[in-house]
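S.,

As promised, the iron/sulfur cluster run. Input:
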Amino acid sequence: MLPLLDDHKTYAILTDTTRCVGCEACVGACVQTYQLGNDRAWRWKERIDDLSSSRFTTIIRRPGGRYVRQQCRHCVSPACASACIVGALEKTELGPVIYDARKCMGCRYCMMACPYGIPRYSWEEQVPLVRKCILCYDRLKEGLRPACTDACPYNATVFGTRADMLAEARRRIAAEPGRYFPKDDPTIFGEHEVGGTAVFYLSDIDLGQVLPWRPNLGNEPLPTLTWAALSKVPPIAGGVAVAMGAVYWIIGRRMKLQAEAQAAHAAGAVKHDVEPPCTE
Ligand code: SF4
Ligand code: SF4
Ligand code: SF4
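Predicted complex:
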């Protein structure tokens, strides 16, 4: 497991659902920054408010004017990174959990391991990739804030060091007693769950009823449990040496396919009209 990072040197987002008006400026900023384009009209949904391979953040809408932003939590001890046997997901020194497509072999263990059901798979691509929010790691390295938090006109989603975001959450709770859930002892969701995250929530409702996550998350980091579970999954159980041989063959093949797809795309020959299977 990674050594724990300093809360004063890593970054986090605080989302306060009581201030969110559902304008989706944050979603638009993310789409623009990462050129995600139009989302697909998944045939089994009337309205898109779930994450997808082309939406790293969304606003989940609920009756009563409730708007809850969904995104990767950038866990302090990320189960996705622990589950990835080729190191395609990585917890960085600044806090974001990022993804390296060049290493990914497409096993999707990360998707199974994530307690919040975050990563998506770009089935529509010839060589599918795992897709999720990267906490604007590229922008953070340049001293910029995440595009989504910069765009929010209501301070419903704000950015700072993990220590500062926890302090800001406590300040808001103290400033308005009775505003947040539960009223007698408001929770900063993400402070402790599964070892803590870098995306915190304040809300006046029980977010467990809105955001999809595994029940009874607990406060223990999941990576140890993840490995206990994955050790029962072939090819891991079959031996690391055999598994790694297969892994490098798969990665090599993926890279070859990716190069071919890029060449075909450059030649204008790629079609994106294949209906992906139902996975979300
Ligand atoms: S929320 Fe899921 S995808 Fe994001 S860092 Fe945590 S385990 Fe990984
Ligand atoms: S932090 Fe960056 S990548 Fe993540 S949702 Fe916001 S804009 Fe998108
Ligand atoms: S920009 Fe702010 S207010 Fe608008 S949807 Fe996003 S979080 Fe809510």
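Residues 231-242, 269-280 have pLDDT under 50 and may be disordered. The chain is about 30% helix and 10% strand.

- D.
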